[in-house]
Amino acid sequence: MVDSIPPGMDLFLPGGKENLANVLAGYKADLIVCYGFPWRLPASVLQSTRLGGINVHTSMLPQYRGPIPVNWAIRNGDSEIGVSIHWMEEEFDAGRILAQEAGIALEDEVIPEKLWDGVNRVISRLLPVALKRITEGYPGEAQTPGDHVYAGWMEESFHQVDWGNARRSIHNQVRAIRFGSSGKSGPTARVGGGWVRILRTSLEPVGGIEMECADGPLWIVDSVPADPPKAARSR
Q: What is the model's pTM?
């Protein structure tokens, strides 16, 4: 990783937010550019550069503010995602929007490497646009409040399948967890007399184990044995 850093660029690994403002102020930087940075930056950090900070977010804001927007888009069965570049405020992903682009397809089999390649191509187009607008003094467009899903960490119960739910909801549950684990994990479920971790399902009959959901069948096409969840072991 260190060998890939361009000449003249510094790398530092902060241990916390407290000293970020002092470190950045020493660089006398014009702008902070964030992408995939999980910390909520305080005002002291955002004010440590001449212009403030901007963030690259993988959703069409204001939809899916929060740390895992793509996972939530998959969970909700969205057909696509987008990219937004916005001014940073102390509130997560709430700043004025500098540039946006939609149209990144979410296929039924979401392959992380393929998806991120598409995301990076959009970012490479949008970031120069956003930076140019900043130099021109463009303040950005305020986000419309409206109804939106906050893309926070998934609740613990989401990692266990309830066969009383709709089949597409369970299918998307498996897709979302598989994406978040790069294909290595899935929700646990009771199947027959035992427990499995479901890695892949199909809404169409393609073989595998047929399970009845609230509104019809769903086929388990890839799974591995799993220990029962704690709640089930205590019964």
A: 0.91
